[in-house]
Amino acid sequence: MADTGFVFICALLVWLMTPGLAFFYGGMGQTKNVLSTAMYSFSAIVVVSILWVIVGYSLAFSPGNLFFGGFDYVWLKDVGYSIPKEGIPDVLNMMFQLTFCAVTVAIISGAVAERMNFTAWLLFISLWVLLVYTFVAHWVWGGGFIDEKIGALDFAGGTVVHIASGVAGLVLALMLGKRKEIALPHNLTLVGLGATLVWLGWYGFNTGSALGLTDIAMHAFVNTNTAAVFGIVAWVGIEWIVIKKPTFLGTMSGALAGLVGITPAAGFVTITGAMCIGLLTAAGCYWAIAYLKPRLGYDDALDAFGLHGIGGTIGALLTGVFATSSVGGTDGLFSGNPMLVWDQFLAVIITIAFVAVMTYLIAKVVSFITPLRVNQKAEQTGLDVTIHGERAYRE
Question: InterPro entries annotated for this entry (predicted)?
Fold first, then answer.
């Protein structure tokens, strides 16, 4: 009963991350695109909730084989609702995993905000959930080959959530091209509200991945907060040196970078490892956003790739460095097992390659049905009015 109650609360917290992301992304954009940017995230909840209960959960978590889950749980067939004496009911695990899928899809929207056609977005995410997310989730958490054969670690979604969403966002951003008008975040208060909700939800994201009120969950709880604050220390510290000012946006970005980095490692490392992961991931994400993006010229509108793709990759690799059997049962490089770094590297490369190719193919198919990008007039006017017929603010 205690485990069921614990994971139930964690599922609610993870659900909260998607609306939080809507506010975070909404504040990062322009006033004329606040609602359209938020709608990408809220539509993710709707689309994923429908697909997940029909077939998505089955594709990801049916026994199947090393590559594909199968159809055992279609329409939640044989997914138990009864609360067992030990562990959690199957349907609760289904809902917990649904919230993970929803926030993964919402993260992608940060790369395409202010220019992607909403109809194309709905078609794309529907296909992406079924043909990309369910496969990667099965490989890592559903008895697939990344877990069973490679032996890579991903406690709460470094590869499944962050690398997958970040890489998908980058591919879409490259296919869509740059925005006609790029502006600074219009409402940092809204950004702060969204980031705070996402941070709060992350406690459920990481601790709930223990699937019970255990000592591993407590390690994940402490490590989550520790990495977040050390992410802030790194990001704001770099800002203070480079631009001579500690910014609020940098504070929020540093926290999210640290949270992304600790996600795959939360239940496998000590607090010292969490500190190092927070520092190194935030530094890497800062470099990606401040230097790599301008140099390469891609328009990752709200830094989905810079925070999640880069942060997830760094976190996954550092899991192989700092993992210790004293916490999660597996030793990494610093505990005498350098092969875990190689295992993590393989998982990262496989995930990046699969997600990049499939995202491109899905987007191309969608482009034959409807344009991926809105027309120039709609982009200039703003998507709030042209697509949704609403305004976030009075003129």
Answer: Ammonium/urea_transptr, Ammonium_transpt, Ammonium_transpt_CS, NH4_transpt_AmtB-like_dom, RhesusRHD
Report the CATH number that the domain containing residue 45 is assigned in CATH: 1.10.3430.10
CA–CA separation, 339 and 23 (whole Å):
41
**Domain assignment of residue 164, yes or no:** yes
Neighbours of 233 (CB within 10 A): 17
Separation of alpha carbons 66 and 85, rounded Å: 30
- Measuring CA to CA, which residue among 75, 90, 77, 118 is closest to residue 389? 118
**Number of independent structural domains in the chain:** 1
394, part of any domain: no
Range of the domain at 331: 1-388
Residue by residue, pLDDT tens for the chain (395 residues) are 799 999 999 999 999 999 999 999 999 999 999 999 999 999 999 999 999 999 999 999 999 999 999 999 999 999 999 988 788 999 999 999 999 999 999 999 999 999 999 999 999 999 999 999 999 999 999 999 999 999 999 999 999 999 999 999 999 999 999 999 999 999 999 999 999 999 999 999 999 999 999 999 999 999 999 999 999 999 999 999 999 999 999 999 999 999 999 999 999 999 999 999 999 999 999 999 999 999 999 999 999 999 999 999 999 999 999 999 999 999 999 999 999 999 999 999 999 999 999 999 999 999 999 999 999 999 999 999 999 999 999 86
Closest CA to 112 of 369, 392, 366: 366
Q: How far apart are CA 76 and CA 62, in angstroms?
A: 11
Structural domain contains residue 139: yes
Is residue 213 in some structural domain?
yes
Q: For the whole model, what pTM was predicted? A: 0.97
Any idea what DSSP says for residue 208?
G
